[in-house]
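Q: What does the assembly look like in three dimensions?
Context provided by user:
Components: two
Sequences:
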Amino acid sequence: MPSKLAYYPGCSLHSTGSEYDVSFRAVCAKLGVEIEELKGWICCGTSPAHCTSRLLSLALPYENICLAEQMGASEIVAPCAACFARLKTAVHEVAEDPQIARQVSEAIERPLPKSMKVLNPLEVFAKVEGLSEAATTALPGLKVACYYGCLLTRPSKVMQFDECEYPMEMDELLRKMGIETLDWSYKTECCGGALAMTRTDVVLKLTRDIFEEAKAVGANAIAVACPLCHVNLDTRQEEVEAEYGVSYGLPIFYFTQLMALALGVPRQELGLEKHFVSAEAVLSGVGEG
Amino acid sequence: MKTDATIRPRSQLAREVFEESGQDVNLCYQCRKCAAGCPVSFAMDYKPSQIIHAIRLGMEDVVFNSKTMWLCASCETCTTRCPQEVDVAKVMDAVKIVALRRGIKPTVPQVASFYRAALANIKKCGRMYELGMIIGLKLRTFEFFKDAQLGMKMFKKGKLKMIPSLTGAVRTWKIFSRVKSIEKKGRGA
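A: Here is the predicted structure of the complete assembly.
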């Protein structure tokens, strides 16, 4: 029997990205993917850690990796792209540098696991058989631009996930569920990430470029796999529209929300009401409990 | 006999960056793919490729007075594309670490304040308590009214937690302090 997948939600999925948490769980339940949330998990440190201390940026993720081993798991799934990147980077660096490995072990006062696979939900769901058959609800009229952001595929040496200049995993996954996704050129263009609060002007410019390209190919929705991308593209959209005198009205979905809808999960269970840009128009009538 | 034709000047800054990040800026041959692909370069005074060269030449005044590393969004495009496999994003991290360690005033102070606010928050709560982090940031930057409307809307939509979770707070605090003492030992050695 395969060991259960350890689920590392990370800080965002318990607050501003809670829609990702509920929709991810809903998809796992529908597809029979068994997950168990890591008990006592702590923050992975993300940018503040790696920008100020290498050891801290590796120790915090490893505390969680050790917790996963403690619960008998050999694989962790981390939906947040930043957490996914930090966990995977930690495993990579510890394997390459025995001296830092010793320091990490000393910092968290635990022996480091020999191996731990870090996965993101796209990889987990891609392995599930019978996806097309399980997708019982149609989502017609949706033309989705899949936005991968930066950290899922880069740096390619570490992340080793999909094709870093033109990924297709999210597209393929959604297409299997009967959702139309479009080809476009801004799949992995940075949204500005953590500069949202400190240099909002940069984020407004970068997200505007993304909206422009999505609109140019005829998208009426954008699918994301990262809570920070979601916050930037969703909560700042109105600000972008005001700043540049344009109108987009592009609802931003977590790809798990779209998958869940296609699998027949009622709309009210997916946190759609928390979105700033309403999804009403594109979802007209779909998934009404 | 293997010949290594790379000229490797040993500027103090290049050595410090190497110690901090394992990255050798002497490998750079100025192809400028990093600068070309950098999404934030439009807002930077010096492009990433210029900072790499400045580090190589030990031009500390240029490097530490530039905004480049503070504006870096860690998108890893540069790292992925560098033909010499220099982890440029890591070099940017290293320069920030060196600057903070030397007590140099960050040229984009809000970004450093954000790091401090976030880390102080994580250290105390174990998990990032966003409301606490935002308050910490505003107290450091005095930008009390910025994003106030956005914040209100997020509250109304239930996107911000009122009460922090304190799971793992003690463990996290201990990790922070052990990291600090290990780093101190490493520098004293």
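Follow-up: The first helix of chain A runs from residue 10 to 13.
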